Amino acid sequence: MTDERYLKRTIVKETVASRYLPEQGRNLRIFLPPGYNELLSYPVVYCQDGEDFFNFGRIATTSTQLILDEGLEPFIIVGVDVDKKQRTAEYSPDGERFAAYTAFFAEELVPFIEERFAARRDPASRILAGDSLGGTVSLHLALNYPHLFTKVISLSGAFYAYSQSLIANETDLSWLSIYMIVGLQETAYETDRGVYDFVALNRNAKALLESKQATFSYEEKDGKHQWGFWQKEVGQALCYFIEVE
């Protein structure tokens, strides 16, 4: 049974306007940690597929448990919703809306959050998180805006050929820290771009990141390309970047 304390949490819904994205704005859901105090400041975890991270990844419940029971430093979570029909266009580095989405994220979303909430404003306190293509866009956001982001959580990242070529073109990634996990049962996963071996994709991406001196945690374990697998890994991923007080 879930402890009732984990369910008493504050989740605020906001909409951020954008001059880059064609629609009126982008919906957000924002988790404020237990004891949230505007006079303090907190690390922020920015999640792609925000609705999924909250509903299927249970990130708010897991985070509340880690803060209350494991002594993790309190942190804010920002879940950024996505229209699934536009997901590949926005999240893939060769997608037609990728440039607009990443500009929105770096130039509009982050300032919006940091003006309205008690968020720390240094790169070490901003963590990007995503599953599949959400992991991909999180990494490329960091590569494109290293002055803003240096930490990435990638759950079964979709590191296709073009993505790998962009990593290969980097010279020094010693500033980047990335947490990577992939399921061993993801060797023939059908995507909107064809069937891919995500284990091979992640092994290749890991080797490229390693050759560029990135810091990373990499793990392969039993799991499929779905939230049933990723939900169990969210807590460990958060603990990699958020310190115990």
Distance between the termini: 27 Å
**SS element count, helices:** 9
Mean pLDDT: 95
Percent of residues in helical segments? 25-40%
Largest sheet: 8 strands, mixed
Shape: globular
From N to C, what is the helix and strand string? HEEEHHEHHEHEHEEEHEH
Under CATH, the topology can be stated as: Rossmann fold
**Order of neighbouring strands in the sheet with most strands:** 1-2-4-3-5-6-7-10
Name given to the CATH architecture: 3-Layer(aba) Sandwich
What distinguishing features does this structure have?
single chain, 245 residues, alpha/beta, Rossmann fold, 8-stranded mixed sheet, two-stranded antiparallel sheet, 9 helices, 10 strands, 23% strand, globular
Give a short overview.
Pfam families: Esterase. The chain is α/β, with parallel strands linked by helices.
Task: Outline the structure in words.
The protein contains nine helices and ten strands. It has 245 residues and is of the alpha/beta class. The chain has one domain: 3-Layer(aba) Sandwich (Rossmann fold). It has an eight-stranded mixed β-sheet with strand order 1-2-4-3-5-6-7-10, sandwiched between helices. The chain has a two-stranded antiparallel ribbon with strand order 8-9. A hairpin with a 2-residue loop joins β8 and β9. α3 runs parallel beside α9 and α7 packs parallel to α8. It is globular and about 45 Å long.
